[in-house]
Automatic annotation (TrEMBL):
Keyword Nucleotide-binding: yes
MF terms (GO), sorted A to Z: ATP binding; ATP hydrolysis activity
Protein name: ATP-binding cassette domain-containing protein
UniProt keyword annotation of Disulfide bond present: no
Taxonomic classification: Bacteria, Pseudomonadati, Pseudomonadota, Alphaproteobacteria, Rhodobacterales
Keywords: ATP-binding, Nucleotide-binding
């Protein structure tokens, strides 16, 4: 079973090739971290996969009707702008909009579960626009979670969260995967990606240069070539431990 399949996906922006021949499939049980330098193409890949921007090639999600897609995949975008000062609980409940039984007991339960999972109980009556950046990010993750889709896609979901909230969201995503859903999230924190993701996809100049378990992707060669860094890696009780040491150029690795 596949929750997302991309076949030879290419995308051009402003006459420049931003994605080049992307092939991948994501199955239930996977927590996939999409990693790569700024400008590597991570946001473009997520948006093109969902059919939000035009692309060549084939995406299993982009081909669906809007309603079908809303039940197949939830998306937390990178832009965190919340337009209206609606209460947090109403904004999270918007995740249920594609479900036919909106406002039913099961819908309310899904919203409540998402509010609890992101520890938003104390903020539920606040206007979402009045929250801090990190609090707004948690609200938008909760809205995506409330959608209760087999696949959750998130663009830098832990950016701007405090360390405890980052770990808690990564554990939440790993838990969704363990329950048989799948998560595809772009991430810049390679340490958290190494520890919590089941699989990493490394993008470089719009191409997939590595795809596999964290230990196979976060090699010294890939880190130097794609990120320009050196790092120390070891295996700890909670999985792989990863610490950035220096830029590769200052070690003479470039
Ligand atoms: N609408 C656009 N018009 C022109 N160029 C674009 C557009 N959108 C993206 N790009 C370019 O495409 C490349 C990939 O951008 P993208 O946002 O996908 O990168 P990213 O890997 O998500 O980066 P970051 O880690 O900084 O968020 C960048 O060089 C960017 O400047």
């Amino acid at each position: 079973m596949t929750l997302l399949m991309l076949s030879d996906m290419c995308c051009t922006q402003d006459g420049r090739q931003v994605l080049d021949g992307i092939n991948l499939s994501i199955a239930p049980g996977e927590f996939v971290g999409l990693i790569g330098r700024n400008g590597a193409g991570k946001t473009t890949l997520l948006r093109a996969s969902l059919g939000l921007i035009p692309a060549q090639g084939w995406s299993s999600l982009a081909d669906m009707s809007v309603r079908e897609r809303a039940r197949a995949a939830a998306f937390m975008p990178q832009g965190r702008e919340i337009a209206w000062p609606m209460p947090v609980e109403s904004l999270v409940a918007l995740g249920r909009i594609a479900h036919p039984d909106a406002a039913s007991a099961s819908d309310r339960a899904a919203t409540e579960q998402a509010i609890a999972a992101l520890e938003l109980q104390g903020l539920r009556h606040r206007a979402a626009t009045s929250l801090s950046g990190g609090e707004q990010a948690r609200v938008l993750i909760a809205r995506a979670l409330a959608q209760d889709t087999p696949l959750l896609m998130a663009d830098e979901p832990i950016a701007g969260l405090d360390p405890a909230a980052q770990i808690s969201v990564m554990r939440l995503f790993a838990g969704l995967a363990a329950q048989g859903k799948a998560v595809l999230a772009s991430l810049h924190d390679l340490g958290l990606a190494a520890r919590h993701c089941t699989r990493l996809i490394l993008l470089d100049h719009g191409r997939i240069v590595a795809d596999g378990p964290p230990a196979k992707v976060l090699t010294a060669g890939h880190l130097a070539q794609s990120f320009g860094i050196t790092a120390q890696m070891s295996v700890g009780p909670e999985g792989m431990l990863f610490q950035v040491i220096d830029t590769a150029s200052s070690q003479g690795a470039n």
